[in-house]
């Protein structure tokens, strides 16, 4: 299991939002898309809009990727329409904004 650092982001949230605003510079993983659809999001644009609503205060932790060594992932927790969300984002090796995960946060306190 990778390391985690609480309360500190690896990536600048504004930079990730800028990357995600360009369809050619964004990736939404299949797993993320499936989870988001199950929560009522109907498109990649809906998912990206949720990321645009994130604030630095929503940061939960940054963590090492288990699948891609050398990459870190920032985890945000927020609420959308009374649903607690767990959102994981990063900047890829090739400079794209990536939404790795958007799912119901069952551990939200």
Question: Secondary-structure map with pairings?
Answer:
Layout lengths: L3 E3 L6 H8 L5 E3 L1 H9 L5 H9 L6 E6 L7 E9 L2 E9 L5 E8 L5
Parallel strand pairs: 2-6
Antiparallel strand pairs: 1-3, 3-4, 4-5, 5-6
Descriptive account of the structure:
The protein has 109 residues and is α+β, with helices and mostly antiparallel strands. It has one domain (4-104): 2-Layer Sandwich (YaeB-like fold). The chain has 3 helices and 6 strands. It has helices at residues 13-20, 30-38, 44-52, and strands at 4-6, 26-28, 59-64, 72-80, 83-91, 97-104. A 6-stranded mixed sheet has the order 1-3-4-5-6-2. Strand 4 (72-80) and strand 5 (83-91) form a beta hairpin. The radius of gyration is 13 Å and the shape is globular. The protein starts with a strand and ends in a 5-residue tail after the last strand. The model has no long low-confidence stretch (mean pLDDT 94).
Summarize the structure in short.
The chain is α+β, with helices and mostly antiparallel strands and 109 residues long. Helices cover 24% and strands 35% of the residues. It has one domain (4-104): YaeB-like fold, CATH 3.30.2310.40.
